[in-house]
Design brief:
Layout: H1 11-24, H2 31-40, H3 48-61, E1 62-66, E2 73-76, H4 78-127, H5 134-150
Antiparallel strand pairs: 1-2
Helix pairs in contact: 1-3, 1-4
Length: 153
């Protein structure tokens, strides 16, 4: 069923956000207001199924305050408000998860580059010719000689 011209159809979420806005402003909502708001967001209520969906949405997400049957006032229900909060938490968790995945990918790439650089320079130091000059060799011999004479075995 396509009753919207919007790219992301979520009539329930739009209704809950509108209800939250009016709840914060401490203003009740009438069914007529909700319908007008949803129509302004691009939803159409031309068939009985679409009208039934809007009516069910009103009953599930809003609780009655008072008034005559035709002009009753409603507020966003606690259940509707918690559904909105749960949706927002889920949305935030998904965003955080995507950020964490990208950070992990970047960390893996950096560690691969560091590993490659380390292997390259280790290999270079192993392949490089090592020369000990006579002066250095004599210093090593004198240290060994001193150690041998100091040890009275």
């Amino acid at each position: 069923m396509s009753f919207s011209n919007k790219k992301s159809e979520n009539i329930y979420l739009d209704a809950l956000e509108y209800g939250e806005k009016l709840l914060i402003e401490r203003q009740p909502i009438e069914r007529k207001q909700l319908r007008e708001y949803l129509e302004s967001k691009g939803y159409k209520f031309e068939t009985k199924e679409e009208e039934r969906l809007r009516s069910t949405l009103s009953w599930e997400a809003f609780s009655m305050k008072d008034g005559e049957p035709l002009n009753r006032k409603y507020y966003l229900s606690i259940e509707g408000y918690f559904k909105l909060l749960a949706y927002r938490e889920l949305s935030d968790a998904r965003k955080s998860s995507k950020i964490a995945i990208w950070c992990a990918i970047v960390a893996i790439i950096i560690s691969i580059i560091a590993w490659g650089t380390s292997v390259y320079f280790s290999n270079e130091s192993l392949v490089q010719k090592t020369t000990i000059e006579d002066k250095q060799f004599k210093v090593i011999e004198s240290i060994l000689h001193n150690l041998e004479t100091a040890d009275p075995k």
